[in-house]
Amino acid sequence: MSVVRTDKWLQESYDDPLKLCKKIKSYFDGVQTSEIYDYLTIHGMYRRPSTNNSDLVKSLQDNKVWQIVVKEKRQLQKLWNGPTIPVFILPSDPDNHKLVKDHNGKSGLAFGDKMFLFLSESNTEMEIRALFTHEYNHVCRLANYQKKENDYVLLDTIMLEGLAENAVRERLGKENTAGWTSYYSQDQLKKIWNSLVRPNRQASKNDRKHHEILYGLHFHPKMAGYCVGYYLVEKYLDKQRITCKDLLPVSSDRIAQLN
């Protein structure tokens, strides 16, 4: 797995993110550069800036972002026997107020064969480590769980997210997990699981309920799917006295203790 030196790309083309996306195009099959740009910006990448901000790129370099990620990928690839994939580090969108408020301006995007980290100059080393841990756990789950991602239903998605954030807890401590892991009490999570998530657990990725429940949209509890996934995975880990690595190939139904 290589951590691509996107800082060199940014030094040349920061003011034109479409040029950056063109460099990434070969990692996507049959997708136009503009489509890649649209998809990445939806998930937190910066948009075309009004001015060239070379200071931002320098700040990320001064914060040793690329070196931190190189060290993390070596450790986690060995720990989880993970796949070799390219990792792309790019600035996040400072105008995405929700991203800044809820996640301190950081975001990630994982595929089975590549990964993106969108970071701001304010992110600490521990935040970067936690984000990388979460996203690389996704990559490892996708590689080990014998179900195609296109066939995932809501239960599979919440387990993907719950396992990834439990990996952060296991490796870096509860204090470095995402804020949403503390939104609800155990009793509240049990109720959300039984009344909302479980009855809709077979909702496909194309079903609007999948997205609404996962993120807690339209009057659903905020981040409902994420929070329930974390709760169910943590319960299973504690009961079985195993690690997140052991869970990578385990079926979603088993983790949720449905069979």
Task: Specify the number of helices.
Answer: 13
Average pLDDT number: 94
Number of strands: 3
Strand content: 5-15%
**Widest beta sheet: strand line-up:** 1-3-2
SSE string, helices as H and strands as E: HHHHHEHEEHHHHHHH
Radius of gyration, taken over Cα atoms and rounded to an integer in Å: 18 Å
Q: Helix/strand-derived class? A: mainly alpha
Q: Give the N-terminus to C-terminus distance in angstroms.
A: 36 Å
Low-confidence stretches: none
Largest sheet: 3 strands, mixed
Fraction of residues in helix: 40-55%
Shape verdict: globular
Number of domains: 2
Please give a structural write-up.
This is DUF2268 domain-containing protein. Residues 65-256 form the DUF2268 domain. Pfam families: DUF2268 (PF10026). The chain is mostly helical and 259 residues long. It folds into two domains: 6-144, no CATH class; 150-255, no CATH class. It contains 13 helices and three strands; from the N terminus they run H-H-H-H-H-E-H-E-E-H-H-H-H-H-H-H. It is globular.
